[in-house]
């Protein structure tokens, strides 16, 4: 197992909910587990190329590594801001423990602006209440959490505002202000927000540039195309997780990218069956959850793509409901 990070795999989902968490406390497996299961974990290493004909990986150090079967579990790279001032100090994305810890430390008693109103932006905003002097979320959509619909997003926004978080909708960052360190965010509407810390939660991109030019097929957005057995278009190479576009058989979807922790976990479990040639015990049902202030959240199971109508049971305003999507 090769990873760019300093640590073996850990509970990355927790970082946006508890950015003060230490890496040693959120590891998914102990060193003994890897040793007992003959898993060699190589940290602080980056793969820069692959020779598919010789089944050999090229590492950033110049070293090479042979493989018989290769699994690409690349995750996603946070999309960075491109507006003027995006390179100022104290402008962050969130993916690693060190980034989460830096955000928490720098936010103490300061004005924080989170750009992006989806899951990462809203979760990190909720986690910084009580740490920061003020927290503002800037969304370019009608309501935050657009994947859940404006009805749910409106309720979540109201609850955030009741907690003291300012949530601005239908707004976009025009530029970041400051000399060396960020001091503010000017929006396209002309409003300027005080900002000692800026966090960009504006989605991820697949870190697959190093695969371009190989026979591993990527889709138009750069995600790795795989079949129902997670095979790529290269022999002996499989891919799973956030960086793939895979079939979703129960919904008759030929290829879909899903960027949620539980789906990536399920990919890994199913891939084990695929590699040893055994039938799947079950088909994948996507699932995710989100949690704010460690008090309330939303859980989602299934896939709403292609749905034609919706039925709601319960009360969305109380976040005590079930929302059904039908084709």
From TrEMBL:
Its cofactor is FAD. InterPro entries: FAD-oxidoreductase/Apoptosis, FAD/NAD-bd_sf, FAD/NAD-binding_dom, FAD/NAD-linked_Rdtase_dimer_sf. Residues 2-268 form the FAD/NAD(P)-binding domain. GO terms for molecular function: oxidoreductase activity, acting on NAD(P)H. Keywords: FAD, Flavoprotein, Oxidoreductase. It holds the Pfam family Pyr_redox_2. It comes from the Eukaryota. One of its GO terms (cellular component) is cytoplasm. Belongs to the FAD-dependent oxidoreductase family. This is FAD/NAD(P)-binding domain-containing protein.
């Amino acid at each position: 197992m090769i990873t760019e990070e300093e640590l073996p795999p850990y509970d990355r989902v927790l970082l946006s909910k508890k950015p003060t968490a230490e890496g040693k406390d959120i590891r998914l497996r102990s060193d003994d587990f890897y040793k007992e299961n003959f898993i060699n974990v190589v940290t602080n290493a980056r793969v820069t190329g692959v020779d598919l004909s010789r089944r050999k990986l090229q590492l950033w150090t110049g070293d090479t590594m042979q493989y018989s079967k290769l699994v690409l579990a690349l995750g996603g790279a946070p999309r960075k801001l491109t507006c003027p001032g995006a390179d100022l100090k104290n402008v962050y994305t969130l993916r690693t423990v060190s980034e989460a810890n830096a955000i928490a430390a720098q936010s103490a008693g300061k004005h924080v602006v989170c750009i992006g109103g989806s899951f990462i932006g809203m979760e990190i905003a909720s986690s910084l209440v009580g740490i920061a002097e003020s927290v503002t979320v800037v969304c370019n959509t009608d309501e935050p959490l657009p994947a859940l619909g404006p009805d749910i997003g409106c309720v979540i926004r109201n609850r955030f505002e009741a907690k003291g978080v300012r949530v601005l909708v239908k707004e976009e960052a025009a530029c970041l202000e400051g000399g060396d360190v960020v001091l503010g965010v000017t929006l396209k509407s002309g409003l300027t927000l005080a900002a000692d810390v800026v966090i960009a939660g504006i989605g991820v991109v697949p870190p697959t540039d190093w695969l371009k030019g190989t026979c591993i097929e990527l889709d138009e957005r750069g995600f790795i195309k795989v079949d129902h057995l997670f095979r790529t278009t290269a022999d002996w190479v499989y891919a799973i997780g956030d960086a793939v576009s895979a079939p979703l058989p129960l919904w008759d979807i030929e290829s879909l990218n899903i960027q949620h922790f539980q789906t990536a976990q399920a990919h890994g479990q199913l891939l084990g069956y695929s590699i040893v040639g055994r039938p799947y015990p079950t088909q994948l049902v996507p699932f995710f959850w989100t949690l704010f202030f460690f008090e309330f959240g939303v859980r989602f199971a299934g896939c709403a793509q292609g749905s034609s109508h919706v039925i709601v049971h319960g009360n969305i305003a109380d976040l005590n409901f079930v929302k059904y999507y039908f084709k």
